[in-house]
Amino acid sequence: MADDPADPHRAGLLAGRTILAVFAHPDDESLACGGTLARAADAGAKVVLLCATRGESGSISDLSLVPDGDLGRVRVRELAEAAAVLGLAEVTILDHHDGDLRWANVPQLHEEIVLAIRRYRPDAVITFGNDGLYWHLDHIGIHERTFTAVLSLGADAPPLYYVTMAQGLMRAVVEAAHAKGGAPPDSSFWGIEPDAFGDAAEPPTFTIDVRDWASRKLAALRCHRTQMGPHNPFAWIDESDARRYLGTEQFRRAPIDTSGDAVLERLGEPVRERKQA
Ligand SMILES: [Zn+2]
Q1: pLDDT: which is higher, 10 or 117
Q2: What is the CA(155)–ligand 1 centre distance, in A?
Q3: Do the domain assignments include residue 162?
Q4: Which of 47, 83, 232, 271 is most buried, most CB within 10 Å of its CB?
């Protein structure tokens, strides 16, 4: 039934809802949960991104992309393109320094996140888990500040969700890229060992099926051209690989007592706790 209110694929399921994603760098949104953001937007949600830095300390895949050396300016443009691919309604980029998020201007970042929540009144907030995806200190910093910002709102706090990555997923992407003849042995994801992704993630409490949005997730990742050199495994995989490896995103609800209704869970499937034998 096309209009069955219980159908999780129903268009308009999240009509009138707002989702706020809070991340550290341009490309975090696409890598961590681009599929969910696109799916939520398609379901009628207003999806807003707050990005704390311009990512000016990142790598540069091709120097000709940054002729004047201002990587931050180029990455702001790349983020706008990725946001359009994902269907985001608004992107706000803060003025923090890439690399300093965990210890510089901490009260300011806290306050900016609080203000964004007051302004957009989101039904759900998404950020990294305490593993920072691969122990990235900026990611851990944005996790900490988003947690304290949401917590400080007390009974008015929206539900907060941590997005993590399944361990082994990035290794599988590397192998898929090898099968296509790409990703030579010295290739990497931004210099990071594939097995580091998700290595310390707490288990998710629900997953969201984004197979039908995986090609948009891959396209959004590729908008971040300065971060996507020819040896990046994401440059080599095709849409069926994307569907297979990027088609599930996983979340854990933060341990904050909120009155808000479980908006994001509506798109997902609960994960049963695995009992120890
Ligand atoms: Zn990042």
Answers
A1: 117
A2: 30
A3: yes
A4: 47
